[in-house]
Design a protein that fits this description.
alpha/beta, Rossmann fold, about 210 residues, 6 strands, Arc Repressor Mutant, subunit A
């Protein structure tokens, strides 16, 4: 299996690389932060990315969301010390194939990575139970489409409805960089399950998410 490691601790990357190589896996690259993980994964096209959560520049959940939106064929498995339920739920919603804790035994790690390579969820029984319990809980009240977007994402969507659709113009209007605008647009499309800006504008108007006459 061709694997990319994303973790901001060099010693952990060294140890994990040696462990993976001892089992015949090829480590094609190593990233020290989420932004570099996305860039390397898009360039190197590994079979799987082992992604830490707490990293500088861009955290592992945001990096997973961006990478799976841009290249869904690359499987991402979170490998972290964080056992917080919210982080687990956010990672799976972002598109992660699995969520593993760093205190795993090596044998269990490789068993779960093998599952991930076959497209199966890579979760320990304890985390799988937590996930099932969370998704089985009825929502207190249904969220509107607008509620799933952040304030900044709503601003971007409103401007797109007004006809401001290029990254350059959006960046100028919002006082942001073009890369940041691209990230917000990808999040909007991902959250609304759409494929283009035109679809986002049509969706917003149909569902009265913004008022085009305002």
């Amino acid at each position: 299996m061709r694997i990319l490691i994303a973790d901001d601790h060099p010693l952990f990357r060294d140890g994990l690389r040696s462990l993976l190589q001892s089992q015949g896996h090829e480590v094609v690259g190593e990233a020290r932060d989420g932004k570099q993980a996305v860039e390397l994964a898009l360039n190197l096209r590994p079979d799987l990315v082992l992604m830490d959560v707490s990293m500088p520049e861009m955290d592992g959940v945001a990096a997973t969301r961006e990478l799976t939106a841009r290249q869904p064929d690359i499987k991402v498995v979170i490998l972290t010390a964080s056992d917080q339920d919210e982080t687990l739920f956010d990672a799976i919603k972002a598109g992660a194939q699995g969520y593993l804790l760093k205190n795993l035994e090596a044998e269990e790690l490789f068993t779960l990575l093998d599952r991930a390579s076959r497209g199966e969820p890579a979760l320990t029984p304890t985390l799988a139970r937590k996930l099932l319990q969370e998704f089985a809980r009825p929502a207190a009240e249904p969220q509107s489409e607008l509620d799933v977007l952040t304030d900044r994402e709503r601003e971007v969507l409103e401007l797109m409805v007004e006809g401001v659709t290029s990254n350059r113009k959006l960046a100028k209007r919002l006082g942001l960089s073009e890369n940041t605008v691209k990230f917000h647009v990808r999040n909007i499309l991902d959250k609304l399950r759409l494929n283009s800006r035109a679809q986002a504008v049509g969706y917003a108007l149909r569902h009265k998410m913004v008022d085009p006459t305002a």
